[in-house]
Amino acid sequence: MHPTIAIQGFEGSFHQVAARRHFGPDHAIAPCATFGQVVRHVAGGTTHFGLMAIENSLAGSILPNYSLLQRHPVHVIGEVYLHIRQHLMALPGQRLDDLHEVHSHPMALLQCADYLGSHGHWRLVETEDTALSAQRIREHQRPGIAAVAGSLAAELFDLEIVAADIHAEPANYTRFLVLEHGAPVLEEVAPDVNKASLYFHTSHAQGSLVQVLLPIARLGINLSKLQSYPRTGRTWQYGFHVDVEFDTPAQLLALLHELRPVTEHLEVLGAYRRDVLEAVPAHVVSPGNVLQ
């Protein structure tokens, strides 16, 4: 029986691409309109796993998603760094000169603003999802209209990529978290686990954060992420989400032992193997490689 993965977005979205990278092609997806729905599916057991974007190398962190991790009985079992490549696609046989309108999610349109702006007569239409824009073009057989989306959307909906890699910044990455129901069992951490996501808050006193950071440095652990987040009901007080990278699980256990006395609350959101950042392909250097 293949697992079912809850993803934010629709079939052909970058969330589905990330799911394929982590789980392989043999799984079903449960498309969700919001990140909250993704987490609720996992927490309620209606899907085996969930996949949720947490940060982008250009746009930064998706702060509400950190809150979702804390408020629901889920934990992180993996991560995916996905190179985001945006393509212009349309019905087979369409050429650039045939186009007059481009549909996509506002963020995708923004990422491709330089290229799209060079075609000033095109009307840009914001939609709720990149892949859904591509699907609608196929379903409604709309000549003259293109979508900005990933290559999986073109494959699934039988569209042709008219211009490839039209995003302005070649090194555009989104980090996704892989979620499972329940809390992590640290006693069963595999030997190859080398990254963990934690949440903590301390007393609102001078030097309290330093007392957390010192053991991280002393134990030879890399602090790869430090994200503050407002504490509910505590005006101008903050909790912190951190990602730490280490060589052996024993280092993580030693760190937790040292952090408990210097934090008011400490929570392990997940321990997993860190993903490797895929390199930008050599040919993805200038946007708008016309394929026709």
From TrEMBL:
It holds the Pfam family PDT. Residues 4-181 form the Prephenate dehydratase domain. It is an enzyme of class 4 (lyase). It catalyses: prephenate + H(+) = 3-phenylpyruvate + CO2 + H2O. InterPro entries: ACT_dom, Chor_mutase/pphenate_deHydtase, Preph_deHydtase. Residues 197-273 form the ACT domain. It comes from the Bacteria. Pathway: Amino-acid biosynthesis; L-phenylalanine biosynthesis; phenylpyruvate from prephenate: step 1/1. Keywords: Amino-acid biosynthesis, Aromatic amino acid biosynthesis, Lyase, Phenylalanine biosynthesis. Its EC number is 4.2.1.51. This is prephenate dehydratase. It comes from Hymenobacter profundi. The lineage of its organism: Bacteria, Pseudomonadati, Bacteroidota, Cytophagia, Cytophagales.
